[in-house]
Amino acid sequence: MKVGLLVVAYEASATLEAVLHRIPDEVRSALSVILVCDDASTDDTFQVGMRMKQARPDLPLEVIRRPVNLGYGGNQKAGYHWMIDHGVDVVVLLHGDGQYAPEFLPQMLQPIVSGQADVVFGSRMLERGAALRGGMPKYKFAGNKILTFLQNRLAGVRLSEWHSGYRAYSVRSLAGVGFELNADYYDFDTQIILQMVATRQRIVEIPIPTFYGDELSRVNGIRYAWRILRHTLQWKLSR
Hints:
Elements: E1 3-9, H1 16-21, H2 25-28, E2 31-38, H3 45-55, E3 61-65, H4 71-85, E4 90-95, H5 105-113, E5 119-123, H6 130-133, H7 138-155, E6 167-170, H8 171-175, H9 188-198, E7 203-207, H10 221-238
Helix pairs in contact: 7-10
């Protein structure tokens, strides 16, 4: 399979280099492309990516700087379209701020590569208490659990977490849903889960460690909760 890694990055100049260095050797050798998508950062994220491309020829790096900020969801949309257009078979989403551990890329890929799944979600909630030990604030932990419970009830599934950004998709599953119609905000991640559920994709969750980085500070919690519950309820009513 042709495997791609999509690294979404915004204001990630302090972390991007370390994230790329942490990609395990066994995954690096299997990757066809690592697409770093700088979402019009005001810092040196793009320059860091280009320096890494020169310094690490063993990494199949392609570095793109968006001329305007597309938003978290919009950056994913453009990246997934790039992967589809370039004939990639499997794509893993990784954040450039180090919030999700590159060391778990083998576990993220294995269920799809082995033919056991179409979609893999990294979950911070599968192991009891792990999220809190990893630094997730208690009020955010409670909010995550409540929102996940409500969304599971509405969507008729039993996921342990709807709100992790560590995901892997077969490109065939991506191409079969209208992800380009989704929001450009953080609720993109909920919308694409609903699309995968609606099209009966095989979803597998794996446990991942929790690291509470700076990216989540950019999310307005009330706005986010309202939007994802609205999307899920609309999806339920439309079914």
